[in-house]
Predict the structure.
Amino acid sequence: MNEYIYHFSQGSADGTASMKSLLGAKGAGLAEMARLGLSVPPGMTVSTEACRYYLERGGLPPGLLVDVQKGIERLEYITGRGWGDRTSPLLVSVRSGGAESMPGMMDSVLNVGLNEDTVEGLIEQSGDEIFALDCWRRMIQMYGVVVFGLDEELLQVPIDAAIARAEVSVAQDLSAGQWRAVIDEMRLSIVEEVGVGIPRDPTEQLWAAVGAVFESWNSPRAAAYRRLHHIGGGVGTAVNIMTMVFGNLDQKSASGVAFTRNPVTGAPQPYGEYLPCAQGEDVVSGNRTPRLLSAVEERMPAVYAELGSYFKRLEGHYRDMLELEFTVESGRLWILQVRKGMRTGQAAVRIALDMLDEELIDLDEAVMRVDPDRHVPDLLSPIIDPSVERPVAVVHGLAASPGAAVGRLVTGTAEAITRSRRGESVILVRPRTSTGDIDGVSAAKAVLTTTGGLTSHAASVARGLGIPCVCGAQELRIAPDGSGIFIGDNFIARGEPLTVDGSSGSVYLDTLPLIEGGEDERLQRFLEICDRQRRMEIRVNANDLDGARRGSALGAEGIGLCRTEQMLLSDSGRLMAMRRAILVGEEGEAAGALEDLLRFHRHDVAQILRTMMGWPVTFRLLDPPLSRFLPHDEVSINQTAAALEMEPEDVASRVESLKEANPMMGLRGCRLGVVHPSIYAMQVQAIVEASRMVIDDGIRPIVEILIPLVADVEELRRVVDQINQTIAEHLHGAHDSMSIELGAMIEIPRAALQAEEIAECVDFLCFGTNDLTQLSWGMSGEDSRRFMSTYLDEQILSHDPFETLDRTGVGELMRIAIQRGRRANPELFVGVCGDHARESGSARFFESLDIDYLTVEPSDVPMARVAAARAFVAYERALAAARMQAE
Amino acid sequence: MNEYIYHFSQGSADGTASMKSLLGAKGAGLAEMARLGLSVPPGMTVSTEACRYYLERGGLPPGLLVDVQKGIERLEYITGRGWGDRTSPLLVSVRSGGAESMPGMMDSVLNVGLNEDTVEGLIEQSGDEIFALDCWRRMIQMYGVVVFGLDEELLQVPIDAAIARAEVSVAQDLSAGQWRAVIDEMRLSIVEEVGVGIPRDPTEQLWAAVGAVFESWNSPRAAAYRRLHHIGGGVGTAVNIMTMVFGNLDQKSASGVAFTRNPVTGAPQPYGEYLPCAQGEDVVSGNRTPRLLSAVEERMPAVYAELGSYFKRLEGHYRDMLELEFTVESGRLWILQVRKGMRTGQAAVRIALDMLDEELIDLDEAVMRVDPDRHVPDLLSPIIDPSVERPVAVVHGLAASPGAAVGRLVTGTAEAITRSRRGESVILVRPRTSTGDIDGVSAAKAVLTTTGGLTSHAASVARGLGIPCVCGAQELRIAPDGSGIFIGDNFIARGEPLTVDGSSGSVYLDTLPLIEGGEDERLQRFLEICDRQRRMEIRVNANDLDGARRGSALGAEGIGLCRTEQMLLSDSGRLMAMRRAILVGEEGEAAGALEDLLRFHRHDVAQILRTMMGWPVTFRLLDPPLSRFLPHDEVSINQTAAALEMEPEDVASRVESLKEANPMMGLRGCRLGVVHPSIYAMQVQAIVEASRMVIDDGIRPIVEILIPLVADVEELRRVVDQINQTIAEHLHGAHDSMSIELGAMIEIPRAALQAEEIAECVDFLCFGTNDLTQLSWGMSGEDSRRFMSTYLDEQILSHDPFETLDRTGVGELMRIAIQRGRRANPELFVGVCGDHARESGSARFFESLDIDYLTVEPSDVPMARVAAARAFVAYERALAAARMQAE
């Protein structure tokens, strides 16, 4: 072992599973398997540090060449083959592998070491000219694409031409002579395109491949994947140089992918797919539809038994469901890769619960095994309404990623992106997908492929993204011009609506009705485990009965944000009463309008309080600028004028007079309460009277009033005084003992700084992280869309701060506010109600801030319950680790 | 002495001059004069603490009555008179007096103790029935207004009616019988209006008067005065209860006001005015035009001599120009009040310099004697263009407050306010002004009165506000219906233009041309003293030659903010090139437009650098959203389309596409530099090339580039890298050694928090306090106008944060930014370029933050030089005081 090189071979390794950031996930896995004595082809890992050196300085670190050369000599010694030897050549694969699993995203070159000399050695060694030539053409293809950056199609042309010339149906049927011609054409194409050919010297090939892999870290598609999966940049990839083994050597050879448990359902039986006489890339690429692993048992029982014993050892060691890449070369099993298996939400939850029951993991770890963002939505994702009779499916395939989706048929990635940008839902149909399709797949509502199995690229990417996928629908053909698809003789044109059910593998013509994902017993059990493991309360944002009911059903512990303006915007009667209150000049009339609003409000509040049955409900007083309630186009101005018996010009001029240059920072929030106190007074009166009504019904409501957009403590005091006065006026008699808690929104930077004084006036604080982000960044969420993509593409920002909470700026203001607030009032209850509350990545930060509750949209409640539990576990673990380090 | 009562009489006092906050300015002055042995009527001061107790709890503090009663007994003992005694009654005045001088703003009641019994005693004692009755009716009038809150006019009616009935011209000519009838009518009016009369019991009168004075602290007009003069609320007023002395007793009696130096010119001779046989209020009210003090020398030489000796003692003691109220009662001089004399800017500067030369004060103190906001503008205030021949003045009066103004004639306060809100300039003409006119006076460009002298209310308020005033223009009469004014037989209608020259006392018909205040030698000397006493640099905001020249002429030490967008908006050629760069789709055309802009920019930058002759110039790169440069109405869209050979629809749609919901927080500032790097590159190239040109001319320019709207350090790094690259590309050859410093605007809260990282990338920071205020408060400066008045009127905020820097929020962010910035870069140069930079009230705060420079509009440069000097002196004094306390 030296600075950059980590060797491994069956029974020993320089690295371990814990060295992921140095060796990449793949390298660490190989090292660990080698240590465990699994059958791993010997090789070495070039660490991510070398990659960083390369990316920063534009060259390989000094000494690296010599060390790799020594490693190659070690492989020569172990395998008994020679590097560049024309009788028994040593061939290696060069594969990337970052610290975070990025399946299919990075580049690899196989069969490095082949040239016109060594290929003859390989022919001799294998006794199979076609096999050896096939290895060589694969090497040429991959080298061309990875090192020279050529288009994949360019090097496919000679093969397709040869197939046509030879009048055979697949490349496997080409003769050795035909292959030699193909290879000559390929090499010529490269020289024509690039100006030079692939170097003959194996070492030169190796350096070029290593450099290309390093550079692939910064390729647009790798960057896109990292952004999509929120993997930070700047870490670099490791490179694994490993002795080649050949799944395509003979009929006793095969390549496959296996999962220790079922990655779609989570059922505790191994699941896998393989292709006889094929290299691993053939399985993943989806070019051929593979066979089930169970068939191996019949054909190669010893291999199957060895594999089964590996599954047990690895699961016992890693305590998780694992995915293995394996190759059988002439009956001998080799494991090429191990990693935690990508899984659907169903599988994640089931595996976590099963392993808990199997006592492989504890409660904390079970919680950590389910990703709230990727897994929970799977279980809640739409399904086809079971109450509706289904038509006959037009085609069936493998149920590769669960859930159902409807959308318009598209056959190209570019079209998928374009249409989805226009707001259309699209179903992407492809023969197979490859890494270049990633943007198209993530733009689609569902993916349908004609070839490939559950382990194909399309399937695993769709599962990763949580979108439904049906794979290997072999009866389906895509029209050569892409104008639609054929199923038998049926033609379905591009743009036609389809419904895809990724849970059953069926595809339907037309748009079937979807409903929200149903009850899942395992999910319920898992969510209850999460509830026991978390500290932060999860509440729901709900402004009406429906939201309140859905939130409660999904486990919300009260309403954390009831936006009262939404109540007033919910129907035309309420809206018109609000418009009257704003528009009429006469005080008497305005008072009349306020009376109407009071009645509406009281009714709506009482309904919600009855529904919430004694769970807390936070009513946020009117927040948006008044112009939000007013008509803006001519038609609605005229309608409003007619309804209010006003002149249209008067309405229009009042509307005009309320326009603001920067409405986000204008007369809104509690400024309305200061300038137009009668509106807040009406709202508070309605809340108090509704509370009295439900108390009379025997329900004991817990009512909180939240004051939005506080900028200054004196302003807050004024509004609090007015609210308390209104409460005192309207809460009397038997209801005296009821207390209504008051809170302040912290969404203005100044309020965060003044939190100590503010906390003296209220019982709780609630961070509005959307506005706090806008103001801390001086960046309107709406307007930033047009330049945020530049900031992300150019890696100036790693995240859009409106999607991922900015801990540096917004986070510091939150920390300051909580520290100061609790200094004044140690009992201060603190919540978060911005969009960031739903974001699991920020949950741990909120946990570390000692936030008491998060309030999220109804559909996000289950995710938030999981995220809060994970945050608690992760934070406690980090604290324990810090304590241990301190001791 | 006890808790609330501080006694004083000639030769002794409980209080001292330093107890202003406890005794009010008036009470502290009386105490000090009594200690110095000046002839002060005996009395007592009820402290501001009693007032605070009263305002907070709604009643007088316990024990206060007994203590005041004891104080009254002491006055009985000293004066030999009896409280409520019908033969020799003790009468007192009850006057308010806050810690800060608020001339005429607070209430007083004189002759307390008079009733139907004691008035007979006063008649006997004085031997003058009419005098005694006059005292009584004054007491009734003041009591009615102050205690009962009656309208002044109501109690004037019986007097006017009696004058009419008696067919005399002034009240002084009424007989004793007529006065008795008047008094009966007044007392009847009060009973009819209020339901009760003035209590007969002197003690009851006293309590009611004290309570009314306490309450007057919260009167709207007192609150308005405090707001206008930025005097904080919540302190309360003291009450001075003092034995009455009568300037209206006989022909050897008089009342007057005297200044130890001339308050208009500052000339070192005493100046004063008096009225024989009058009470003090007659002098101040402006009802009668008083005589000059010098006349006293002839008529009462002993009094004059005594007064002169007092001037010397007091100036020697207070080391400042003082204003005294005095009364002569039957030849005996009494001093009723002393305070620092209000003065014009001319006087302030002259007195400061004279006292410095007289070695009464030192350099530091001289600096503190001139108020940058009130005094400096006086010296810079407009004058009538001396190069133009003046017409004959229509009327002359006393030159009561210097400077000239033009505006339309108005005769009423309400009209003055209405018209000035509409943006009109008005000249307010009144017989006299009283405290109720304060809002009208401050709305006017100049004030003209028919009666009253230099010490009248109108004169002193106008001087306080720094607006021109001509007083006592006796030839002028206001039409009874207010429709205009008569000067002799000439009628000048309301709305006609007038020019008032407050420096000469002349008034002209029509609008004369005004020019900026001329060079004043004393001012120059004073400013140079300030330059020596200050630490903060003063720079100027200038975007063109004119601004650069004016700023330099007024003493700016470089340009602190050159807004490059203003250069591009300065003429239609530049504007159209900018529009072309934004609007044309073709890259080639855009490049052409950028070439044009480069040429324009280079020319403008070179001009400014040449003008500034080696002083530093800070160019701020483009800041506003691009839509700022685009046409928005149909006509200009069509013109632009024609000029750019585009279709109007294309222009309109591009304009539409650049619209933003909240442009203040949209694509602007350095975000432009990130999204459209070619624009910033063009600007930097222009700056570099212009610098090379002026270097070739032999000027060594100091160039700084300021990057606006920084939110994030990575964003800044990107822009800094681009700038440095452009500099490196275009700065070569002989100019290599030139260095261009880079700075970041701190105007986004997040940038303040990230200042440590930011400071590592730049040489200087500049706070944009306007935007920092907007974002810290979540309040658009533009939109807040419509609700800020409510916040101020209801005393939720003491200041508009856009006028006065908010130290709590914005100030804390500044403190954090400076602390963090200097942690990374101890040499970091830090400035302020928001509107607050010109605000003298914040200068001391900036001084305490160790701000290096302030940059202000050209006309504000002299004020800023004074403010910076005062800030330095004040801060050093505060530090010294703190050190002393620590030792």
Chain A has a mean pLDDT of 90. Chain A touches chain B through 47 residues (CB under 8 Å). The first strand of chain A starts at residue 5 and ends at 9.
